[in-house]
Design a protein that fits this description.
Layout (H helix, E strand, L loop, with lengths): L2 H20 L10 H18 L2 H11 L9 H19 L14 H11 L4 H49 L5 H11 L1 H43 L4 H14 L7 H9 L1
Helix pairs in contact: 2-6, 2-8, 3-6, 4-8, 4-9, 5-8, 6-7, 6-8, 8-9, 8-10
C-alpha cells in the first residue's frame, strides 16, 4: 500500500470536509447525485472523445496502481541478472536458453532470447531501445488521460452549476427556496474542481512516476543482458546496475537518455 497516495487523498478530504463542518455546514449539503452525474458523466464523455477506448481502459486499469507500492522490482531484477551472468560465465551464453522458461516477465524473456539467439550487442541495443521508445510513448498517453480529465472536470462542473441556476431562475416566485437552490447548484462546481485537484491531476503525476520506474527497470534489464553478452564479470555487473537503483527514485527524464548514459 502506498501510504503517500492513501494518506494524501484522505488528508485532502479531511481538510475540505473538516472546514465545511467548522463553518457550520453538513456533509449532506454536498451529497448531490445529480451534480455527480453531470460532472463525472460529462468528464468521461469528453475524455472518450479525445482518446481511443483502449487507451482510456488502460488508464482505468492503471489507476489502482497509484495506491500500491511497486515493491522491490529493481532489486529482484538485478539479482536475477547477476545470477544469469554467473550461469553464462560458467556454461556460456547459450546455456541461458534453459533459463527463459522460468522467467515470467515478457520483456526480460524476449531480450534474453535475442541475446541467446546470437544477436550482436549493438544490434540488440537498437532493437530493444526502439521498443522502449515506442512503449514510453504509449504509456505517456495513459497519464494524459487523467491530465485531460483534470482539465475537463472543472469546466463541466461550471456547466452543472449553470444548469442548476437555470432551474432556480424558473422558480423565483418561491423566494424562500432561491438561496437553497443556488447553494445546491454550486455543488457541481465543487465536484468538478475537487475531482480535478484531489484525484485526476495527482493521479496523472503519480502514474508518471510509476511508469518511469517500470521504464528504468526495462533499461536496467537491457544494459544487464548486453553486459552479459559482452562477458562482463558478475561482480562488476552488480556494481554497474546499482546506479539504476540509486537514480530510480528521482530520475524522471527521457528513458533513452538514461540508457545511453548507462551504456557509456
Amino acid at each position: 500500500m502506498d501510504k503517500a497516495s492513501v494518506g494524501g487523498i484522505l488528508l485532502g478530504l479531511f481538510g475540505i470536509l473538516g472546514g465545511l463542518l467548522l463553518e457550520g455546514g453538513t456533509i449532506s449539503q454536498i451529497l448531490q447525485p445529480t451534480a455527480a452525474m453531470i460532472v463525472f458523466g460529462g468528464t468521461a464523455g469528453a475524455v472518450l472523445m479525445q482518446f481511443p477506448l483502449p487507451v482510456v481502459m488502460s488508464a482505468v486499469r492503471r489507476l489502482a496502481g497509484i495506491f500500491f507500492e511497486p515493491g522491490a522490482k529493481l532489486e529482484s531484477a538485478m539479482d536475477m541478472l547477476v545470477n544469469l551472468a554467473n550461469i553464462a560465465r560458467r556454461y556460456g551464453i547459450v546455456s541461458l536458453d534453459a533459463e527463459t522458461a522460468s522467467i515470467s516477465d515478457p520483456f526480460i524473456k524476449k531480450t534474453l532470447m535475442l541475446a541467446v539467439d546470437g544477436t550482436e550487442p549493438e544490434e540488440l541495443r537498437k532493437i530493444v531501445e526502439l521498443e522502449l521508445d515506442n512503449q514510453a510513448e504509449r504509456e505517456e498517453r495513459v497519464a494524459q488521460v487523467f491530465e485531460s480529465a483534470g482539465g475537463f472536470s472543472p469546466t463541466v462542473g461550471i456547466i452543472g452549476a449553470v444548469l442548476g441556476l437555470i432551474q432556480v431562475m424558473q422558480h423565483l416566485d418561491k423566494i424562500d427556496q432561491v438561496g437553497r437552490g443556488i447553494a445546491v447548484a454550486f455543488v457541481a462546481t465543487i465536484y468538478g474542481v475537487g475531482a480535478a485537484n484531489l484525484l485526476f491531476l495527482p493521479a496523472a503525476g503519480k502514474l508518471r512516476i510509476r511508469l518511469r520506474e517500470e521504464q528504468v527497470q526495462r533499461e536496467m534489464v537491457l544494459e544487464g543482458i548486453i553486459s552479459i553478452l559482452e562477458g562482463m564479470n558478475p561482480r562488476m555487473l552488480r556494481t554497474s546496475l546499482r546506479s539504476f537503483l540509486a537514480d530510480s527514485d528521482v530520475d524522471t527524464g527521457p528513458p533513452k537518455a538514461k540508457a545511453q548514459t548507462a551504456g557509456t
